[in-house]
Design a protein that fits this description.
It contains ten helices and eight strands. The protein is an alpha+beta fold. Bound molecules: zinc ion.
Length: 247
């Protein structure tokens, strides 16, 4: 009898209705991630996302604060989609990353990531990108689309070239977390025409002054744009297929 009670206390049924809905959202998030990282995720149980190496990530952590810093430093699965991406709202959608998932997909160490990098020709500039999980192929498709775009609108080329880079094994400044560049799944375009939240706080200015054609091309292939973040970084594009609109 006592054992059953203890079980009940820790089971999802003991949660408040709001928390049950968060748990359901966490499970839906797990299913979306499973579609986007099919080789890395084995299963979505009632409480956990289960990685292909059997490590588990909580779907919903009831003790976690729902601000971006808490969710980015200690994310549950719900954190990934807690903020909606590209809904015209200032937020930090995509800045919470599940590191065990990124590591199992793209490489756990600098050496492992480097083994997965392949050279590509970015409009005449050599860059490297991760071949796992469709990242490299998506970037190649983007390059083809960008080539067509700058044939039509050569004035946009300056936003792209020279790109500031892709792979760089480094932590996000002021944090203990690795940047998406550490996995070879992000690109920074020309820094000269970019804006960063630490330089000024004018979100409206940076959002509306960057060429939307470039952003749309990246987003059409499963990349998110750092210019949509409240802590914006307009030259930054990152392969995050879980945010791709599938119509
Ligand atoms: Zn970047």
């Amino acid at each position: 009898m006592k054992k059953k009670f203890v079980f009940f206390l820790f089971s999802p049924l003991f949660l408040y209705p709001k928390e049950i809905s968060f748990l359901e959202k966490g499970k839906n998030a797990c299913f979306i991630l499973q579609k986007s990282y099919p080789e890395s995720i084995k299963n979505c149980s009632d409480e956990f996302l289960i990685l292909s190496d059997d490590r588990k990530i909580l779907l919903y952590d009831s003790l976690l604060k729902r601000d971006i810093e808490s969710m980015a430093s200690n994310p549950d699965v719900l954190s990934v989609f807690y903020f909606p991406y590209n809904q015209g709202i200032k937020n930090d959608a995509g800045r919470a990353r599940l590191y065990p998932l990124l590591e199992i997909t793209y490489g756990k160490t600098k050496k492992e990531v480097q083994k997965n990098l392949k050279k590509l020709d970015f409009l005449g500039q050599t860059l490297f990108f991760n071949i796992k999980n469709g990242a490299y192929n998506a970037f190649q498709k983007i390059i083809l689309k960008l080539k067509k775009l700058i044939q039509k609108k050569p004035e946009l080329k300056k936003y792209l070239l020279p790109a500031a880079g892709t792979f760089s094994y480094r932590k996000i400044s002021g944090t203990d977390r690795y940047s998406a560049h550490s996995f070879g799944i992000a690109v920074d375009l020309n820094v000269k025409y970019s804006d960063y939240w630490l330089w000024h706080k004018d979100w409206e200015k940076q959002t509306y002054s960057y060429p939307v054609e470039i952003v749309k091309i990246f987003e059409s292939e499963g990349f998110i744009w750092g210019g949509r973040w409240e802590h914006f970084d307009t030259m930054h594009f990152e392969y995050r297929p879980e945010f791709q609109k599938k119509d």
